């Protein structure tokens, strides 16, 4: 991780106050996943897929943390492909 620019920061156990940014990010993920499920009327059994979708979307979207690029681009070095994106909850045939 150090080679990729990820630095390790230790916090006291059981102290969510020290994880303010992470706690807010988790709230964003949970809230957005809940909205995806409710908006499309998808059963709660798909909670895991909704959370995975939200995290993937957030990694492909611009953020203030890395200026001028997406988190995916900062980690991988190239722009993320988004041509395969579809509406969450749309009908799909296998």
From TrEMBL:
GO MF terms, alphabetically ordered: DNA-directed DNA polymerase activity; endonuclease activity; hydrolase activity; metal ion binding; nucleic acid binding; RNA-directed DNA polymerase activity
Coiled coil: none
GO biological process, one term: DNA integration
Gene3D superfamilies from the UniProt entry: Ribonuclease H-like superfamily/Ribonuclease H (3.30.420.10)
Domain Integrase catalytic stretches: 1-79
Keyword vocabulary terms for this entry: DNA integration, DNA recombination, DNA-directed DNA polymerase, Endonuclease, Hydrolase, Magnesium, Metal-binding, Nuclease, Nucleotidyltransferase, RNA-directed DNA polymerase, Transferase
UniProt-recorded name of the protein: Integrase catalytic domain-containing protein
């Amino acid at each position: 991780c150090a080679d990729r620019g990820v630095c390790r920061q230790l916090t006291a156990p059981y102290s969510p106050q020290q994880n303010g940014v992470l706690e807010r990010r988790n709230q964003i993920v949970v809230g957005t996943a809940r909205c995806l499920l409710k908006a499309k009327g998808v059963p709660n059994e798909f909670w895991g897929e909704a959370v995975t979708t939200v995290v993937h979307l957030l990694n492909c979207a611009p953020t203030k943390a890395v200026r001028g690029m997406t988190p995916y681009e900062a980690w991988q070095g190239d722009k993320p492909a988004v041509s395969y994106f579809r509406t969450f909850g749309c009908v799909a045939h296998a």
